[in-house]
Automatic annotation (TrEMBL):
Residue span(s) of domain SSD: 179-328, 526-691
Bilayer disposition of the protein: Multi-pass membrane protein
Coiled-coil residue spans: none
Location in or out of the cell: Cell membrane
Top-level taxon of the source organism: Bacteria
PROSITE patterns: SSD
Taxonomy of the source species: Bacteria, Bacillati, Actinomycetota, Actinomycetes, Kitasatosporales
Protein name: MMPL family transporter
Species name: Streptomyces mirabilis
Length: 741
């Protein structure tokens, strides 16, 4: 590996114009392709294998007029104080507005509140259920404008009109978060290198890679239905890792130059050492992200594969385009007019010790105390995770005073919380001898359940063998009582099937969200086993040690638990919510924990690889275990610190997003990197390595013989280069032949 990357680095440096032109051609190809296609994204969920998805598919087949998979909106009317919607001019106005809704673009059906029973007992609140012919992703701006026009007309007539449902949701605009992250990253890079040129190369390659990745995703979305969050999360992760990978290689390149190597050779050596770490770190992240596809949830598959592609592109650019740009930069990359006096003293005159070395010596002198404090702190942060609640985003978690939240609260006031999430109960009586009797038994069964507020009569399909029933819970859609109710209905359906031969299924948005949460919760342990298992094999190859990979995985679990605790404290409990721009406390988005596990594991292994490979490199070259730890910090602590600050800045910038999922992922990843880089990798790791001593690098003989030597630390490369140098020196030392005579 190291030898191949050494040759690749020298080739890219030497043939820099060719490499640059090839990458420009790639960018032009995907950019033109992305600009010339009509891309489409979706925020809908499909959960194959669940009862709710099975029932939804049946409804689409047997009740096509109901547009079961279509987007929905709920238009809520509220009369002024002292007036009612059931009489006079207010009723006439509502009837007129409902008629306008039926004429709106893409609308399939509108349920009249006066004939559909959706007027409150006191007559002050009513709502019309709007069903669209198309899915949420295909609702046009014109359709949303028609909906808003009706609401505005009602407001002008003196009514309070609000709207909820997925058809009302608009795609979140890209915030300035990534620009803020880039600005902080630029400052961190300038401080690290003391040079604008050296700081600019990681930023340039990162932006180049992100443009390629996002263009490729946009092009792909023209042929494959992708989630609208795919590009955002690919941008978030790709930007962070691309800057980090380039940072490590540029730092190593400058170090090789200081040791007296020519620029081309320095580029080869930088790729042969730091480049090897980049390959394995990137591979670990890609495995963790691509592994999300095994869950079976389309949204996770989309964002996982999209982000994995962005990371893979970042690795390729770091290994090819970056050394080419180093060739263009030439020796100017070593000039740093922005270095502090202390940086010059350490780097140029060898005076004093970097802060990272002083910290490493402190930890290695007090390993037990430091380890105890760090572990205790992480466990303390993890305590809120014990009260973790999961739910999918809904109108109840919308920002206060938004039309979705006003609609939700108005319905709750007029009817009860359950009316915000009615259950769609499907009776499949195609194998029953008495379809109508089975449907009536289902209506009776639902009516006897204590947490059901109301049950509608059964509506049959044209063949009369599939019935549709609407049941309204007494509790809110995201409450545990509603979860228990859905489970109880399904349990009672088993008895109905035994008695009548008909199958009873529960679907609808509320049931779908419940099934999503259950599926994600059940998939967490298998996902951990697959991803962590594959990554441990990679780390075993990298470090040729059993204890180091196990220690890395244990540290990752600690940082994930602590991160979940912080996320719960902020988004669920409301701690520091205002300061972080969180408008509304709510259960944690169901997708977050499993996505966080995948991404954080990959990023955690990044710092493990970058920091500990340098320790192993020093140990392999003869340093004592404790001195190898200190030496690893001497060469890597400053760069790892800068890399962590950059990642934290990029992720924290996404707190400015108006999407709950993106906002919570941004905070979660920022906190995870903070804890993993500074508490786990730079505190717990050196403490444990000191306590383990030589045992940290031990490997059973039989395993040593079985495992291939991938030479991440570049030991074989060093021997090869040293041998080549000795051979060249011997030739130079041979005496020239003398002429005879």
């Amino acid at each position: 590996m190291a030898t191949f990357l050494h040759r690749l680095g020298r080739f890219a440096f030497r043939r820099r114009r060719l490499v640059l032109m090839l990458w420009i051609a790639v960018l032009a190809a995907v950019g033109i392709g992305a600009a010339s296609v009509s891309a489409g994204t979706s925020d809908s969920f499909t959960i194959p294998g669940t009862q709710s998805q099975k029932a939804l598919d049946l409804l689409g087949k047997e009740f096509p007029q109901a547009s079961a998979a279509g987007a929905t909106a709920r238009v809520v009317f509220e009369a002024p104080d002292g007036r009612k919607l059931t009489s006079g001019g207010d009723k006439a106005e509502v009837v007129s507005l409902v008629a306008d809704l039926r004429k709106a673009s893409q609308v399939a059906d509108v349920a009249d509140p006066f004939t559909g029973g959706t007027v409150s007992k006191d007559g002050s609140v009513a709502y019309a259920q709007v069903t669209y012919k198309v899915a949420q992703a295909d609702v046009t701006d014109r359709a949303r404008a028609d909906l808003k026009s009706v609401a505005d007309r009602g407001d002008r007539a003196g009514l309070t009109v609000s709207m909820g449902g997925n058809a009302v949701q608009v795609k979140s605009e890209q915030s300035a978060g990534e620009l803020i992250g880039l600005a902080v990253a630029a400052v961190a890079l300038v401080i690290t290198f003391g040079s604008l040129l050296a700081a600019g190369l990681p930023l340039l390659t990162a932006v180049f890679g992100i443009v390629v990745a996002v263009s490729a995703i946009t092009l792909t979305s023209a042929f494959v239905d992708l989630s609208s969050s795919t590009s955002t999360l690919a941008l978030m992760l790709g930007l962070a890792v691309a800057i980090d990978y380039a940072l490590f290689i540029v730092s190593r390149y400058r170090g090789e130059i200081r040791e007296g190597h020519e620029p081309e050779e320095a580029a080869g050596r930088a790729l042969g050492t730091a480049g090897s770490a980049v390959v394995f770190a990137g591979l670990t992240v890609v495995i963790a992200l691509a592994g999300l596809s095994i869950i079976g949830v389309g949204l996770l598959t989309d964002i996982g594969l999209g982000a994995a592609g962005a990371v893979a592109i970042a690795v390729l650019i770091a290994l090819t385009l970056l050394p080419a740009l180093l060739g263009f930069a030439g020796p100017r990359i070593m000039k740093g007019r922005l270095k502090t006096r202390r940086m010059r003293a350490i780097e140029e005159r060898g005076e004093g010790e970097p802060a990272g070395v002083r910290w490493a010596r402190f930890v290695t002198r007090n390993p037990v105390k430091v380890l105890a404090v760090a572990v205790a702190a992480l466990f303390a942060l993890a305590i809120p995770a014990l009260s973790l609640q999961l739910a999918m985003p809904s109108d109840s978690s919308a920002a206060p005073h938004s039309t979705q939240r006003v609609a939700y609260d108005t319905i709750t006031k007029g009817f009860g919380p359950g009316y915000n999430g009615p259950l769609t109960v499907v009776v499949d009586a195609r194998t029953s001898d008495d379809a109508k009797g089975a449907a009536q038994d289902a209506v009776t069964l639902l009516g006897t359940m204590p947490d059901v507020a109301s049950v509608s009569p059964a509506t049959f399909n044209q063949a009369g063998d599939v019935a549709l029933i609407r049941a309204v819970p007494k509790s809110s859609p995201s409450s545990q009582d509603t979860v228990d109710l859905v489970s109880a209905i399904r349990d009672r359906g088993t008895a109905l099937h035994a008695d009548t031969g008909a199958e009873l299924m529960v679907t609808g948005t509320t049931a779908l969200n419940i099934d999503i949460s259950a599926k994600l919760g059940g998939a967490l342990v298998p996902y951990l086993a697959v991803v962590v298992g594959l990554a441990l094999v990679l780390l075993l190859l990298v470090f040729r040690s059993v204890l180091v990979p196990l220690k890395a995985a244990a540290g990752f679990l600690l940082s994930v638990l602590a991160t979940l605790g912080v996320v719960v404290a902020v988004f669920q409990w409301g701690w520091f919510a205002g300061a972080l721009g969180v408008d509304q406390t709510a259960p944690i988005v169901s997708l977050l924990p499993i996505f966080l596990v995948g991404v954080v594991f990959g990023l955690a292994m990044d710092y493990q690889v970058f920091l500990v490979t340098r320790m192993r490199e020093e140990y392999v070259h003869g340093a004592e275990p404790t001195e190898a730890v200190v030496a690893g910090f001497r060469h890597g602590a400053r760069v790892v610190t800068a890399a962590a600050i950059i990642m934290i800045s990029v992720f924290a910038g996404f707190l400015l997003s108006d999407t709950a999922l993106i906002k919570s992922i941004g905070l979660g990843l920022a906190v995870a990197v903070l804890l993993d880089a500074f508490v786990v990798r730079m505190t717990i790791v050196p403490a444990v390595m000191t306590l383990l001593g030589r045992r940290a690098w031990s490997l059973p003989g039989w395993l040593d013989r079985v495992l291939p030597n991938v030479d991440v630390e570049g030991e074989k490369l060093r021997h090869l280069l040293a041998k080549a140098q000795d051979t060249e020196g011997t030739r130079d030392a041979e005496p020239l032949p003398t002429a005879r005579g």
